[in-house]
Amino acid sequence: MKPIIAIDGPAAAGKGTLARRIASTLGLPYLDTGLLYRAVGRRVLDAGGDPADAASADAAARSLRPEDLDRSDLRGPQADAAAASVASIPGVRAALLDFQRDFAVQDGAVLDGRDIGTVIFPNAQAKLFVTAGLSERARRRWLELRGKGLEADILTVEEDMRQRDAKDAARAAAPLKAADDAYQLDTSTMDAEAAFQVALAFIRTRIGMI
Ligand code: DC
Fold this sequence. Notes:
This protein is α/β, with parallel strands linked by helices.
């Protein structure tokens, strides 16, 4: 059976960059599951609805199509907030569960998110929980926004992130937390290359691939 690798953690801890590189190194498909919640939030906004309203968010999640993940407006503060709201609604999480499991069923996969190792794939062959300190994560997100030519105030970015972390960790439905058997990787003082090397070494011990 092809391996399933779960990479969870808070925003801007470096899990997306890491997961993409692990996937291409091991020849596995990659899914950024945050995009699913972003696309659901965006659909609710498009319909003029409130992302915190369960009925609107459930309907948007049930009618999600793969091409919704290719939209160019899934990043930025409005999409961040809408995604965090829909992600706390149990019906939305249930609707997206099959999408995520189907994605990995045939060829295995690397998935990054918040609940991959705890809820979506509790039997994943390798689980990583990637973290970094709040101010370092805010700095990375701020640099990313600036790189895209977007104006941002670093303290506002940090405060938005702090609130979103709190919302992700406090929600009743699949709160952000490390699986008991996850390898905890703190990237606060690591660059992307160092994080990749540590993660790959761990994954190899679990799945025995080159
Ligand atoms: O990783 P991200 O910033 O793109 O995630 C967007 C939002 O969706 C964030 O509030 C956390 C939530 N999310 C989730 O609840 N479960 C996942 N598997 C992935 C993201």
